[in-house]
User: Fold this.
Amino acid sequence: MISMIYNPWHGCHRFSSGCQHCFIFSMDAKYGRDPSVVVKTKRFDILVKKNRHNEYVFKTTNEPIYTCLSSDFFIEEADQWRNDVWEMIKERNDLQFYIITKRINRFKQCIPNDWQYGYDNVTIILTIEDQACLDKRLPIFVKLPIKHKQVNCEPLLEALDFKEYLSLGDVKLVSVGGESGYDARVLDYQWVLDILSQCIRANVSFRFKQTGANFLKDGKYYRIPKAEQHSQAKRSAIDYIMED
Assistant:
């Protein structure tokens, strides 16, 4: 479960095949907003706000802070605000920030001057949805100076071949999930098992996050309600977690 979310800005552009049914676009459509307009949110500086007792309003937690879920942290329109967010992340070293991105090609031009090999409290999670995205993004990702790296295959749209990249030793976890919504594309359980096998061979942790709405297993299609997609994945009991 995601316990805490920090969205410093809102708005995005479709970037690749995984963005086809992005929740940002459907959510903004309900409110008559243009999702392609990237705006700074009212909670931009919530990380460092304090109450009258000089205590942070945003409390320390053992759970990760999922950062910028209503946009992409490395989107170009946010260049003017990102350094301020890095400063707040550095100040709040009592929190663990998880940053999910498709735009890993912009990473080097978007990190702070003192990044070096990364901040201890920041995990960068690369999103991959199909083989074309893997072949384009993963070779960049594995070479970047990042202390904590994960890969999120969600929505997984086809079978993936990670080739040699998982064996390079930098990626610590691969998560897999399907797509939600009425028009969700199918997740084939065999694709999930194939990625699990690749992770086991490379000694990389694996997690099956959710089935998605349309799930194919052993030649049979299942329509799974949103409330059950995570629990059904958990019931498969195929997670493979390596000890640190």
Observations:
- The chain has a mean pLDDT of 93.
